[in-house]
C-alpha cells in the first residue's frame, strides 16, 4: 500500500521536474499556454469543483492517464464525493465507451490512494 | 435567420427518425445502451445542469457536432447562462486545443439559435 | 427517396474524381498506400465479408462518415444481413460509446439506401 | 520468459480487482454498461470469433493496450490462427496508420505469451 | 467551378463571423488562446512555411476539415508547391492511415480551388 | 542518469525485436506498409528534417509516446535545435491542447537523454 501511495508522489515529482524543464526552454507560447491552463479551472461563473469535473471527464474520454490522475487529485481537493466521482465517470463511460474502462479502473485506483493519503493525515499536493 | 432556426428542427427530426430506425432493428444491446445514455444525464448526486455541461465538454473535445448540438440544446433547457457556457467551452478549448475551435464556433451558433427561438416564444424541443 | 439514392451516387462520383486527382500528383507513397488499402480487404485467411465488417467497425469507432459509407456499401455487396450489420454496430457502440451514435444513425440510413437501390434493381457500385 | 508470462497474470489480476472496486461503487449505469459490454461479444448472428476480431481491431485503431490485451487473449481462446490475427492487424494498420504500430508490436508480444502459456499446458484465463 | 470558388469565400465569412461572436463573449481565456494560436505559426527559428505544414499535417491526422482548409490556404499563401503539399499529405496518410483519405481528397480539392483563384488574379484571403 | 540513458536503448531493442517478430508473420500488407513508412520520411521536395518535424508533431497530437520517442531521436539525428524542437512542440500544444502536455514532458525528457548521450560521445542509434 505504501508503494501505491508512492505512485502519487512519483507522479507529482516527475510532473513538477519536467514542467520546469519545458518552461526553461523560454518558448513564450508554451509558457503562456501553461498559464491559461491553470486559469481555466479557477472558480468564476462555474465553481472550481464543477470545472475539475469537466477536466476529469474530458481527460477520461480522451484517455490520458496523467491528465486523469491530475484531475482526480484536484477533485478530491475540491471535495468531490465518491458518488459524484462515479456519476461523472458514468458520463465519460457512456460518451466514450468501453475503451475508457481501463482508464476508469486507474482513476478509481488513484481516487482510493488519495482517500488513503488523507485518512492517514498526509497532505495531498499537486 | 428563419433558415438557421430550421437547422435545429432539421437536426431534431433526422435524429428522431433515425433513432426510431436504429431501434427498430431489435438489437437488444443497442436498445439498452440508448436507455443507459438517457439515464446518465438524469439528476442524482450531480444535478442535470452539471451533467449536461459534462456531456457538452466531452462532446467538444471528441469533436462531434451532432452531440454538441444535442447538449447545447439540453444546456439551454437546464438554464445554463452564456457565461457558464463559454467557461465550459474554455475548458474544452484548453484540454482539446485549437482543433476544437470550428466546433466551438458551431456550438456558439447553435446557442444563439436556441436563444433566438426562446426569445420568439417558440418551444425548444429535443 | 430518389434524392436520398442520389446521395450514394454523389458520394461515389466525388470519391472517384478526387481519388484520380490525388493519384495524379505522382506521389509514389500515396499511390502505393492506395494499393495496400484495396488489398487489405481481399479474401484470404479471413473472408471478404469479415474484413469489411472489420473495416466498418474501425471506421465507426474512429467516426469517419465517408469511410462508414464506403464499408456499408461493401458490406451489402458481400451479403451482410441487417442482423449482422447491427451486431457489428453494437460492438462499435459499446467500444466507442454514444459519440458514435450520430454515425450509426447515418450508417443505418446508408444501409437503407443500399437496400432500396437493390430492391429497385439498380446496381450498387463503389 | 517466465517474467513475460507474468505480464498476462498481472493484467488479469489488476483488471479483476479494479473491476470489482468500480462495481462496488453501486453506480447502476456503470454496472449495466459492464453487462452490455460482456453481452456484445456473445455469439449470435455473428459468431464469437468474428466479434472478438471486431473488438480487437476497434481497440487497435483506438490504440488502447489494455483493451488489445483483453481481445488478444479472447481471440486465442476462440481459436483465431496467427494468419487470421495478422490479417486483422493489417486492416487495423491500414485504417489507423503507423500510429498503431507500437500497439501491434505489443499485440504480437501478448499473442506469443498466450501461445507459450498454452504450449506449456497452462490455462489461459481472463 | 465558380460555385467551388464560393466554398472558400463561404468558409472565410462564416469563420470570421463566428470568431467575432465567440470573442464577443468576453471570456478572457478564449481570447488569449486565440492570440496564442495566431502567434504559434509566426516565423521564428522555424519559418512560417514549415509551421503551416506542421499545422496542416496535425489537422489532417486529427481529421478536422475546417482546420485543413485553413492551413491549405495558408500553405498556398506561404508558397508551398504541389509536390511539397503531397509529400506532407503522404506523411499524414502514413501516420494517420486510410481514415485520413476523405480529408486528403478534400484538402486536394481546396488546394485546386486556391490555385484556380490565384490563376484568375483573385486575392486569396483568410 | 545512466538508467535514463538505458531507456533509449530499451526502447530501441524492444522495437527492433518486435518489428522482426511482426514481419516474420509473412503478412505482405504489413511488410509493404513498413517499407512505405520508412520511405515517407526520406528527403525529397521536403528535406528529412522537415519531414521528421512533421512526424513528431503528428505523433504528439495523436499522443503516442513510442512514436514521439522515435521521431525525437530522428530529429536529433537530423540536427533539429532545441529552439526548433520547442517551436514544433508549441504548434502541437496549440493544435492538440493540454492533453498533449504529458507527452511534451516525456518528449523533452527523451530530447535531454539524446543530447546527454551525444555529449558523452555515444552513438545515437534507432
Task: Break the fold down into its secondary structure elements and pairings.
6 copies of one chain form a homohexamer.
Chain A: H1 2-23, H2 28-39, H3 48-61, H4 65-77, H5 82-96, H6 101-119
Helix pairs in contact in A: 3-4, 3-5, 4-6
What would your notes on this structure say?
The structure is a homohexamer of 126-residue chains. Chain A is mainly α. Chain A is 75% helix and 0% strand. Chain A contains six helices and no strands. Chain A has helices at 2-23, 28-39, 48-61, 65-77, 82-96, 101-119. In chain A, helix 3 (48-61) runs antiparallel to helix 4, helix 3 packs parallel to helix 5 and helix 4 (65-77) packs parallel to helix 6. The interface between A and B is medium-sized, with 29 and 29 residues.
Task: List the keywords.
globular, mainly alpha, homohexamer, 6 helices, 126 residues
Give a concise summary.
The first copy, chain A, has 126 residues and is mostly helical. Chain A has six helices and no strands. Chain A is globular, with a radius of gyration of 15 Å.
- The SSE string of chain A, one letter per element, is HHHHHH
Largest sheet entry of chain A: none
Strand content of chain A: under 5%
In terms of quaternary structure, what is this?
homohexamer
* Largest interface by Cβ-Cβ < 8 Å: A-B, 29 and 29 residues
Tell the overall outline of chain A: globular
The overall pLDDT average of chain A reads 95
- Class computed from helices, strands and strand pairing of chain A: mainly alpha
What's the helical proportion of residues of chain A? over 70%
Rg of chain A (CA only): 15 Å
Low-confidence stretches of chain A: none
Q: Quick one: how many beta strands of chain A? A: 0
Provide a count of the helices of chain A.
Answer: 6
How far is it from the N-terminal to the C-terminal residue of chain A, by CA? 20 Å
Amino acid at each position: 500500500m505504501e508503494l501505491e501511495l508512492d505512485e502519487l508522489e512519483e507522479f507529482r515529482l516527475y510532473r513538477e521536474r519536467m514542467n520546469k524543464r519545458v518552461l526553461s526552454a523560454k518558448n513564450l507560447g508554451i509558457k503562456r499556454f501553461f498559464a491559461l491552463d491553470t486559469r481555466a479551472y479557477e472558480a468564476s461563473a462555474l465553481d472550481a469543483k464543477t470545472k475539475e469535473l469537466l477536466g476529469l471527464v474530458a481527460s477520461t474520454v480522451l484517455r490520458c492517464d496523467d491528465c486523469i490522475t491530475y484531475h482526480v487529485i484536484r477533485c478530491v481537493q475540491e471535495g468531490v464525493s465518491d458518488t459524484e466521482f462515479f456519476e461523472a465517470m458514468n458520463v465519460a463511460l457512456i460518451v466514450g465507451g468501453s475503451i475508457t474502462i481501463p482508464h476508469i479502473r486507474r482513476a478509481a485506483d488513484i481516487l482510493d490512494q488519495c482517500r488513503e493519503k488523507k485518512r492517514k493525515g498526509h497532505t495531498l499536493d499537486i
